[in-house]
Write a structure and sequence with these properties.
about 110 residues; mainly alpha; about 0% strand; transmembrane helix
Length: about 110
């Protein structure tokens, strides 16, 4: 029973880190983005901040997954196979969820 608590805590911490990073990105974008930055009297010109938010969120997520992959390799070397397989399971499940969502959107 103690081993499952350790695995759940391990995964909750990792998921919390990802949510914190994405929440900080969203808060930064929300408080600094001004769509009317280039507007003047002659025209109403908007800038596309949503695309930048998406790209930065994608980069943060990819770096997080790369970090989990490196941590998984490190845990295999340190002979902590249950935590390494927990990382692997999280990566596989989250990528399957993203694949299903992309399939349903198209």
């Amino acid at each position: 029973m103690g081993n499952s608590k350790k695995i759940i805590l391990h995964l909750v911490i990792r998921i919390g880190i990802l949510i914190l990073l994405l929440a900080l990105l969203f808060a930064f974008w929300y408080f600094t983005y001004d769509p009317h930055k280039f507007c003047d009297e002659t025209g109403h010109k908007h800038v596309d901040g949503g695309l930048g938010l998406f790209i930065m969120g994608f980069i943060i997520t990819q770096m997080f997954y790369a970090g989990m992959l490196i941590e998984m390799i490190y845990l295999f070397v340190k002979k902590q196979r249950t935590l390494a397989f927990a990382n692997l399971g999280f990566l596989i499940i989250s990528l399957c969820i993203v694949s299903v969502c992309m399939f349903l959107i198209n």
